[in-house]
């Protein structure tokens, strides 16, 4: 169907009529049981929840929070919030209480939907008492009003609420360089352009199936899974737990599968534990047998029906990409940000190049600044940062291009290669942003530490490089002093890790023996750390440090 100028709610109403009795979402509820939602049932429950939200007489365009792992209610809640005339504010299901509190207060959320969570007790203290909470069927025990009670009591909203393209639809909070999340404001028009463009580029239709398991609070999953299903009408399946992930995959039999580097690597390791690499390589070279082996490996992963596989949120190593391609699964890497609803660049089948994040998607303009920074512009680009006009101004060029903070270069086919970072924020292999400065400031409270550099781009967790002060270094010859310092640093990591979100927790501290100075170019003339110089100096040792699994490493 033609989705030109169709906004998300238009698509909801379209499928409500066109595929009323067709299966849309399959939700596991434990013990191998599932609840199935047709398009008709899903829209009906969303309409009932919208009627309830309207009955609360909240101020127009109130912000409504949503904190849960992925589930059918997550998607229906997003629709219900929009139908009731409000704005959705998704929160990651792994945040600590302090960040939960900051987001709910900053966005002035009136209501919070609480779903399936691993550590609700950690988050709960961050929810202001003034916020009305509603619980999903799979939420931790609580005394909130429940989804099922509300949808059984309230008749469905009869009218089709329409929202304008330039209206604010959602605020997505992302890590800021100050450590405090920034609220990315996305309009209905931003979301529509990204979803319709992605579906068109990939040639996705209503017969596809997808498993939704990466956080829907992240734009990557929201664009290509929630909005993707709205713009093409395909089926969604949800995962029950990590333990049941393979069964969930085999139930879904996905034809489209998106993941992040960390999971692609885990899948690979799982295969290689059963079938060592040398043996697999040997079998894949045998004519006729290789097709059987490829199919068997992919079937074991639950990926044998996959037509299109994508990886995003952080770069994937060449070795892993080539390994999957050798199995007949062409992993296509893409590139996007919260600030453009994950709609920027994507490798296309048959045109991908290892090490590149692909070509600009339809409607995306891209150029490289004089400093080498990647600048992008499209109708998917955000309205700005919520309550932060100054930061919004800083993030755009005078001619309206978004400053990505990434350095890059473009090849003769228009494919983009990312070569580094202009700004200090980096991504772990989980696709999560880390702002190093606040963590560094906490580490600097230790009197033995003179300088610190938090790093770990494309690793599972960040780590810290520390240089000791002049008074401390000579004392390291004393074995007892060294042991005491090591114990002190081990405690320091524990204390710091208690104050940050799970994805920001340090894996270890490495104590360097070098001196960072102006003379050896580790510091600027004003004694600021040259982060890229420091990282480059130890790059070859980093993987070995992670392998040691020790809290303190002496370099």
Structure description:
The chain has 555 residues and is an alpha/beta fold. The protein has three domains: 8-235, Rossmann fold; 256-304 and 306-427, Rossmann fold (3-Layer(aba) Sandwich); 435-554, GMP Synthetase, Chain A, domain 3 (2-Layer Sandwich), CATH 3.30.300.30. The protein contains 17 helices and 27 strands. The strands form six sheets. The chain has a nine-stranded mixed sheet. Strands 4-3-5-6-7 form a five-stranded parallel sheet, sandwiched between helices. Helix 8 links the parallel strand 10 and strand 11. Helix 2 (39-55) crosses helix 3. The termini are far apart. It catalyses: a long-chain fatty acid + ATP + CoA = a long-chain fatty acyl-CoA + AMP + diphosphate.
Short note summarizing the structure:
The chain contains 17 helices and 27 strands.
Key traits:
single chain; 555 residues; alpha/beta; Rossmann fold; GMP Synthetase, Chain A, domain 3; 3 domains; 9-stranded mixed beta sheet; 17 helices
Q: Report the biggest beta sheet as strand number plus sense, adding barrel if it closes.
A: 9 strands, mixed
- Separation of the first and last Cα atoms: 60 Å
Q: Count the beta strands.
A: 27
Helical/strand content category? alpha/beta
Q: Which percent bin holds the helix content?
A: 25-40%
Give the overall average pLDDT. Answer: 90
Overall geometry: globular
Judging by the overall fold, what is the CATH architecture of the largest domain? 3-Layer(aba) Sandwich
Number of helices: 17
CATH class of the largest domain: Alpha Beta
The amount of beta strand, in percent, is 15-25%
* The CATH topology of the largest domain: Rossmann fold
**Unreliable spans:** none
Domain count: the total is: 3
Rg is 24 Å
Which strand order do you get reading across the main beta sheet? 12-13-14-15-16-21-20-18-17
């Amino acid at each position: 169907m033609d989705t030109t100028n169709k906004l998300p709610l238009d698509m909801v109403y379209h499928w409500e009529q066109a595929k009323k009795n067709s299966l849309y979402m399959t939700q596991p509820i434990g013990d191998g049981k599932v609840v199935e939602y047709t398009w008709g049932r899903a829209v009906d429950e969303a309409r009932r929840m919208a009627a309830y939200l309207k009955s609360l007489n909240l101020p127009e365009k109130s912000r409504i929070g949503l904190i849960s792992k992925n589930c059918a209610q997550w998607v229906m809640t997003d629709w219900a919030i929009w139908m009731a005339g409000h704005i959705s504010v998704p929160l990651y299901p792994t945040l600590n209480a302090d960040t939960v509190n900051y987001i709910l207060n900053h966005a002035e959320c009136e209501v919070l939907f609480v779903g399936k969570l691993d550590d609700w007790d950690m988050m709960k203290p961050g929810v202001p008492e003034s916020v009305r909470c509603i619980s999903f069927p799979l939420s931790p025990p609580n005394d909130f009003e429940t989804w099922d009670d509300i949808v059984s009591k309230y008749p469905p909203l009869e009218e089709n609420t329409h929202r304008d393209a330039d209206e604010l639809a959602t605020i997505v909070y992302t890590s800021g360089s100050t450590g405090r999340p920034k609220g990315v404001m996305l309009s209905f028009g931003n979301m529509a352009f990204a979803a319709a463009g992605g579906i068109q580029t990939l040639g996705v239709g209503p017969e596809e199936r997808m498993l939704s398991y990466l956080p829907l609070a992240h734009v990557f999953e929201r664009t290509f899974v929630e909005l993707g299903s709205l713009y093409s009408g395909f089926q969604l399946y949800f995962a029950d737990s990590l333990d049941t992930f393979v069964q969930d995959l085999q139930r879904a039999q996905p034809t489209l599968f998106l993941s992040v580097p960390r999971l692609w690597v885990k899948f690979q390791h799982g295969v290689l534990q059963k079938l060592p690499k040398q043996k697999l390589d040997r079998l894949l070279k045998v004519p006729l047998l290789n097709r059987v082996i490829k199919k068997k490996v992919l079937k074991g992963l639950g990926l044998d029906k996959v037509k299109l596989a994508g990886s995003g949120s952080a770069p994937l190593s060449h070795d892993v990409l080539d390994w999957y391609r050798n199995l007949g699964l062409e992993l296509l890497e893409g590139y996007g940000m919260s600030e453009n609803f994950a709609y920027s660049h994507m490798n296309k089948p048959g045109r991908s190049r290892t090490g590149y994040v692909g070509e600009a998607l339809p409607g995306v303009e891209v150029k490289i600044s004089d400093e080498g920074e990647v600048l992008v512009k499209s109708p998917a680009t955000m309205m700005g940062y919520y309550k932060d006009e100054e930061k919004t101004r800083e993030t755009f060029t005078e001619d309206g291009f978004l400053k990505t903070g990434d350095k890059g270069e473009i090849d003769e086919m228009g494919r983009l290669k990312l070569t580094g970072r202009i700004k200090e924020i980096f991504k772990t292999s989980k696709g999560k942003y880390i702002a190093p400065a606040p963590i560094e400031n906490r580490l600097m409270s230790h009197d033995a530490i003179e300088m610190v550099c938090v790093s770990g781009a494309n690793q599972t967790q960040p780590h810290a490089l520390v240089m000791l002060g002049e008074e401390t270094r000579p004392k390291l010859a004393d074995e007892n002093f060294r042991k005491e310092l090591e114990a002190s640093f081990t405690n320091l990591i524990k204390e710091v890790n208690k104050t940050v979100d799970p994805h920001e927790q340090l894996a270890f501290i490495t104590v360097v023996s070098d001196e960072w100075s102006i003379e050896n170019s580790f510091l600027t003339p004003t004694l600021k750390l040259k982060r890229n110089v420091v990282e480059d100096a130890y790059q070859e040792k980093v993987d070995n440090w992670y392998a040691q699994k020790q809290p303190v490493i002496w370099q």
